[in-house]
């Protein structure tokens, strides 16, 4: 009977699992086809032009637009239905972040439209249609994520799986296209800088995709062409954030969740002044370093070497501070006896996997730099600073990943720790001190409820008052002893509460400091300050083309790691 009763539920899971497998395979093939097309355009394959790539991306975006409109329309007609929500997915701060990146992406699209208008004589129509389609796609997608990122879809599950996974890989392809376009621009600048550093033995061939015609208005063309590349980092972050939110939505399709009260964790500036001050100092100094670096690098050999030395020294100092802060936070966690939340949570699982997975990008670059320093025959002075910098990058990510992952898995407090763990001291008859088993047992008063009495803790505060027949001296003595013991208990509670509060304050300041530090370390590579390009030593050891391929593959993951870490640390700060 048990087997027969259980068979329908087991059999019912097969269609869902098959739909998940089929939709994931569809998305992977969609992505691989677009990736191959992107690669063919990048290497100037015969018969493949940029218009072919853009036409493919436009088609994918139009299909996603149709699916989102269908989903929104169906949601409006079923607005009265009560739907399950994943309270951990689509946090408000994450929606605000993606909205900010989307606004800047719309500015990027307007620049592309202006660029197309100025070069319309020699550009394909696809280059004009793409930014318009992308702008509409961006607006509707942000609205969709704001309204439905928390949805747990329980109807039309097979169709919705294909629609959501199509959206995931469409955003990944748009992210790949943005990364490639921005990397080709950075590579051209890097090749020009290598000449000033004295690496004349490296063949310099610029990979230029500039239009083969004159611009109608030279000033506007210069503004559009230069401004586009400064906005690409925000476009790249927008698409990767959108793909992660959509992936969580895809994993939640058909999921059954336990209905329980979710405690809101608003962000508060109170108590994190120290961490914010030190973090803002790091952020301000980093922006100054990046500005000086971009001005000095490529000016002359001496200026370029000074710029690299300045960058390495600043980064070493910041990374050392981050390592120290992370170690202090982990030591505080070791001193606490707190359980971890191991419940099923797709959003939290994805956060942990992305932290470790994207950290591998910078680890690859760091190990490449370490190996180049060891194997190189000649070592310019500035290259030696690269050794401690690369080692600290590896160590800092180890420590930070451990801190973030443990933080997001720790159970959120529902009451003060001192109330939960405090052993309340009471006085029984005969002035004998005894420790009650726990706060919960006293508060619930199980034994007292069974006999119809209240626990003595709530009977006027002392047990001595029960003995009304006793002598006055005995009563006063018992009262005095009870008073002194309860005073000791209150002192213990006070010191315990202060200890817990101090730990929480330290952890919040550390999370705030690391949050701003990760934003600071996101800025240099996102805006062209990349010593992995400009150092020159790695190109000599590994060869120019192999090292550039490694950097172009690893750098996007390294950049995303910093932004994702900042987002995770913001959540940690709210939760602590």
TrEMBL record:
User: What's in the keyword line of the UniProt record?
Assistant: Cell membrane, Hydrogen ion transport, Ion channel, Ion transport, Membrane, Transmembrane, Transmembrane helix, Transport
The places in or outside the cell where this protein is found are: Cell membrane
Give start-end of the signal peptide.
Answer: none
GO CC, sorted alphabetically, is: plasma membrane
Q: What membrane topology does the annotation report for this chain?
A: Multi-pass membrane protein
For this UniProt entry, which segments traverse the membrane?
26-47, 53-72, 93-117, 129-146, 158-176, 229-250, 271-295, 311-333, 354-374, 386-405, 510-528, 540-561
Give GO terms: molecular function aspect only.
proton channel activity
Major place of residence: membrane
Q: Which Pfam families match?
A: Otopetrin
* Keyword Metal-binding on entry: no
Q: Which family does it belong to?
A: Belongs to the otopetrin family.
Return the protein name. Answer: OTOP1 protein
Q: State the organism of origin.
A: Trogon melanurus (Black-tailed trogon)
């Amino acid at each position: 009977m048990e087997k027969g009763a259980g068979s329908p539920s087991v059999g019912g899971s097969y269609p869902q699992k098959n739909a998940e497998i089929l939709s994931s395979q569809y998305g992977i093939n969609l992505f691989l086809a677009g990736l191959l097309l992107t690669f063919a355009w990048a290497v100037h394959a015969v018969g493949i032009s940029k218009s072919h790539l853009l036409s493919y991306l436009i088609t994918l975006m139009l299909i996603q637009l149709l699916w989102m409109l269908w989903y929104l329309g169906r949601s409006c007609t079923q607005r009265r239905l009560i739907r399950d929500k994943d309270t951990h997915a689509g946090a408000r701060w994450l929606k605000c972040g993606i909205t900010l990146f989307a606004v800047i992406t719309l500015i990027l699209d307007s620049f592309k439209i202006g660029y197309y208008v100025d070069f319309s004589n020699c550009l394909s129509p696809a280059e004009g249609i793409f930014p318009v389609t992308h702008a509409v796609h961006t607006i509707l997608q942000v609205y969709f994520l704001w309204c439905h990122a928390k949805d747990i879809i329980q109807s039309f599950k097979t169709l919705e799986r294909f629609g959501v996974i199509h959206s995931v890989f469409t955003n990944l392809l748009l992210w790949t296209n943005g990364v490639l376009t921005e990397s080709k621009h950075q590579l051209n600048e890097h090749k020009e800088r290598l000449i000033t550093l004295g690496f004349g033995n490296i063949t310099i061939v610029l990979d230029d995709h500039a239009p083969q015609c004159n611009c109608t208005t030279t000033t506007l063309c210069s503004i559009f062409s230069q401004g586009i590349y400064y906005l690409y980092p925000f476009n790249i972050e927008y698409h990767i954030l959108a793909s992660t939110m959509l992936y969580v939505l895809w994993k939640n399709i058909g999921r059954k969740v336990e209905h329980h009260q979710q405690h809101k964790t608003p962000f508060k500036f109170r108590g994190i002044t120290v961490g914010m001050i030190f973090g803002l100092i790091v952020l301000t100094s980093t922006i100054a370093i990046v500005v000086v670096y971009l001005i000095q690098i490529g000016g002359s050999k001496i200026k370029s070497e000074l710029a690299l030395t300045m960058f390495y020294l600043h980064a070493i100092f910041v990374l050392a501070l981050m390592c120290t802060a992370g170690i202090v936070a982990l030591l505080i966690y070791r001193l606490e006896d707190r359980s971890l939340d191991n419940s099923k949570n797709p959003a939290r699982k994805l956060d942990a996997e992305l932290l470790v997975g994207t950290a591998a990008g910078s680890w690859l670059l760091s190990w490449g730099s370490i190996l180049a320093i060891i194997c190189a025959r000649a070592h310019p002075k500035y290259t030696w600073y690269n050794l401690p910098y690369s080692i600290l990058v590896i160590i800092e990510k180890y420590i930070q990943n451990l801190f973030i992952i443990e933080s997001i898995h720790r159970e959120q407090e529902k009451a003060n720790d001192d109330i939960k763990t405090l052993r309340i001291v009471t006085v029984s008859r005969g002035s004998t001190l005894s420790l009650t088993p726990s706060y919960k047992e006293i508060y619930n008063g199980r034994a007292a409820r069974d006999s119809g009495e209240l626990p003595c803790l709530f009977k006027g505060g002392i047990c001595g008052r029960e003995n009304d027949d006793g002598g006055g001296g005995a009563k006063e003595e018992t009262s005095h002893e009870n008073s002194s013991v309860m005073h000791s208990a209150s002192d213990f509670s006070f010191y315990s509460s202060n200890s817990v509060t101090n730990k929480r304050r330290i952890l919040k300041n550390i999370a705030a400091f690391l949050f701003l530090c990760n934003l600071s370390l996101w800025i240099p590579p996102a805006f062209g300050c990349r010593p992995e390009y400009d150092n020159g030593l790695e190109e000599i050891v590994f060869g120019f083309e192999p090292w550039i391929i490694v950097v172009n593959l690893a750098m996007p993951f390294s950049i995303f790691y910093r932004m994702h870490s900042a987002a995770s640390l913001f959540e940690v700060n709210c939760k602590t």
